[in-house]
Amino acid sequence: MTIFEDFPAHAPVLEGTLMRLEPLDRRHGADLAVAAEEDRAAYGFTKVPRGWEMAGFIDAHLQAAANAERVPFAQVRCCDGQVIGITTFSTPRYWRGRPRELQAIEIGGTWLAASAQRAGINREAKLLLMEYAFEVLRVARVELMTDARNERSRRAIAGIGATFEGVLRNWSASYVPGEEGRLRDSAVFSVTDTEWPPAKAALRAKLTYTALRLGGHMRRGEVWWVEFDERRPVVLLSEEELSGFQAMQIVAPADTDISGLGIEVTVGVPEGLPFAGVLRFGFPWPGFTPCTWLTTLSRDDLIERAGALSSAKLSEIDDALRATQQGTEWTAAAAARLSEIKDSLRRRTQADGGGTY
Known about the structure:
Elements: E1 14-15, E2 19-23, H1 29-36, H2 54-66, E3 70-77, E4 83-95, E5 98-112, H3 121-135, E6 141-147, H4 151-159, E7 163-173, E8 183-192, H5 196-214, E9 222-227, E10 231-236, E11 245-249, E12 262-267, E13 277-282, E14 294-297, E15 302-308, H6 311-325, H7 332-351
Parallel strand pairs: 5-6
Antiparallel strand pairs: 1-2, 2-3, 3-4, 4-5, 6-8, 7-8, 9-10, 9-15, 10-11, 11-14, 12-13
């Protein structure tokens, strides 16, 4: 018998440090109804029932499980025993000629209560599910999909070590309000059996840092590594707020003079980095929007703490922020300077063989 047969008899309870996964049952309904109504602001791309719809939602999951199409789990927070969300195994694929042996499986249908987000719970759930899929079910591949427009979900999936494979156009139903009956493009990610050991080690390391973060206060001026399209360093420019942290990406210094158009604040080895970089602050010229690499991050985006800025360096950043927040008059000299910089970048691109700018 496989995990998809005779639910819930063959569905495991998966125990973690922050949470555990239990085979979904109607007894989870009351807690899930409360969880779904905490704060629905983050559910723009996700199918999350209203509290009064929860009984029917659970029945639909259980019917899919009875049809051997899905294995649904309730996510239970360990610290208080509260049921705070759902996740599933689905889309089983079997080896040809071996109908009882799973070749691949999908993890999806995931949602969490607002109070359980940005706390490492989703990351630990993915660790538990993939550990079971690769090490017990012996699958060769785990798939994860999300609405191609859902950048936050895409970052989270990439952050667990999954590889982006592409976008399937008009692949599945859209859950965006106002798009009922329409199809969405789905971004596809996967982890394979050969990729799992290093991905597992990285996930465990990130969960260790999550535990450290949960036990302490994240401070303005700390330097952290984050996972965007690749591993990159940022400086936290604010204390944690409901929306997350304001942060700025550390980039390579400009190889041309940008005076009059912006300010670069250098950071490097003293701040815990293995290289010299800058925080770049652009002046707001009328009709010209500078790229400053400012962004908003959650705790789950932070991978590893690299160091912290000194008080003097923070003062330098404050001065740069104040200077770039003041209105600036666009002058012929500034326009000429911008043109010089563009020409310099164009020549460098052509010299590198790019041919375009």
